[in-house]
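Bench notes, afternoon.
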Amino acid sequence: MTRDYARKAKQEPMVPPWLWMTTGLLIGLFVAFLFYINTDREVPGGEASAPAPVSKPRLVPPTTKQQPESAPTKKKDRVRFDFYKLLPEYEVMIPEEDLQKPELKETPPGKYLLQAGSFSTADDADTRRAQLALLGLVARVRTVTIDDKDTWHRVQLGPYEDLEKLEQARKLLQSNDIEFLLLKTKN
């Protein structure tokens, strides 16, 4: 009897069948996942998804207009992503002089504000205000609510009545690559 007990103790433990089945299932799912991510998938109603070629934008005279394509006849062709073809048709040539900011010497006298940003979070607005303080400009954050939904925090400088001080602030913002808007107050 002691011999039988010793023989059973020396046998290796048996791996339960559920463990083999679970391991096989996990390996199969992993292989299926690898196959899935390596195949090209199609966009519904369009061609296989592939990165669109990036080309240099071209300027088209504003008088150039093309007729839109006729309505598709097949149901699966109704959803098409043709904006790569349509966008060049809507490009407008802008004269070089319009791209440059006008000098403030042509600006009529009045009260002006420089808006140095509009942010959806107060932290971003405070960060911009701190940047402006380091440049020696005094800014304030004005909070506005649009359509009772969206809250925006606008960072504004001014009001400026002296056009020379306005020009100095504008040049300082431009030299530090801070985009701004020139706003005229109603008062």
